[in-house]
């Protein structure tokens, strides 16, 4: 379908149904952070990933350099840790909601990498085009995930896709990757150049440019002109400078077609391309072996990603110290590799394997006892820390009579944090004024209290706020005419909040729903 602006639009059943997400606060459990009490920017969040992304939005919008996600592929196959199959339209809607939040979290020069297979890859590409804009599509990386064909299919499936999108392609700058030993061996030094080993490349370019069509006379006396349809790569004065600096090779006899020399000592690496073979970045069997070493054969993850694959992504998309996000943490591979590479990380996982798999894995990384994956390659010996968080329960619940009330788990401080987040205020309690719990501007503040306020208390607040400031007062109830106070806006909890969120919903995860024949029209 084409929208009113002429853009291709993907349509599915109930596309316009969007959840009213409650922006939850995060609660740290120090006993699960590691080491306990350590300060760290690394965060492991236990809870629904859609709610967690919403919880991160206020503090981390525009700060994530790279997001790698490996969502359920919607193949209809049941997994131990995920039910990976649902109606196509449901899958698209749930992915859309998460991708929109991820885009908000990415920095202007950030990128998103999504691992997916053929079952949904092409629909997902169009969906991402809508959210990120087609102009911000970077590449479809094809990863050779197998070492042999899948005999069940007759035409063996050998690859997965990794869709790569930029927040803003004009600001994106990827890093060159390190050369492999195999690539380094291609460097030679047949002319004993003091700058060391080098490799050569074609000195011609496609096309016709009059000032790049000159004749070259080699040191051995041979004469060369560009072949039909091609020209030299540089104009003649630049070519002569390269010759003078011994950066052009004419073969052992000095009569060959000129080739440009590139020295290993001057190379930071090579540009990555979109075909990643398993020899360079690992494969499914390698990932499964890594999982068995970490967790034992009985508890190994069914569909992990090899650490070398994540390392390649982070080499290209990040620098040390950058923030990496994975909201489908699985067994924790992204965080483990990011930690070893000196990146900051945030991971989100709802399943109990957050505790049975991810926590022990990350502790091994911190201790330096994780000997698998890319540990040896990176020379990792341990260090750092991470903090464990869980999503706070929903702020509002119903009492025995079905009336909405503030959840009993919330004390005054939690209530203030939660309401600040819901109302869009930055939570920043003042040490001087008890009524300053947060701010939206330099002169607009919020005060949150579970108390019932009378006219005298409100009048005192109005006086303390002063003439050039304003205060939003959120309280359980008040006994006064709210309009009489010039600098106050007074609202009740929970009445004022009821319509703003879907209260009491803790799980927006991907459900298991097999596609029925009558749903085929959704495709």
From TrEMBL:
Q: Which Pfam families match?
A: N6_N4_Mtase (PF01555)
Region Disordered, annotated ranges? 182-205
InterPro entries, sorted: DNA_methylase_N4/N6, N4/N6-MTase_EcoPI_Mod-like, SAM-dependent_MTases_sf
Q: Which GO terms describe its biological process?
A: methylation
Domain called DNA methylase N-4/N-6: residue spans = 64-355
Which reactions are catalysed by this chain? a 2'-deoxyadenosine in DNA + S-adenosyl-L-methionine = an N(6)-methyl-2'-deoxyadenosine in DNA + S-adenosyl-L-homocysteine + H(+)
Biased composition regions of type Basic and acidic residues, renumbered to the chain: 182-194
EC number(s) given by UniProt: 2.1.1.72
The answer to whether UniProt assigns keyword Transit peptide to this entry is no
Q: Which UniProt keywords apply?
A: Methyltransferase, S-adenosyl-L-methionine, Transferase
Q: Which GO terms describe its molecular function?
A: DNA binding; N-methyltransferase activity; site-specific DNA-methyltransferase (adenine-specific) activity
Family, similarity comment: Belongs to the N(4)/N(6)-methyltransferase family.
UniProt-recorded name of the protein: site-specific DNA-methyltransferase (adenine-specific)
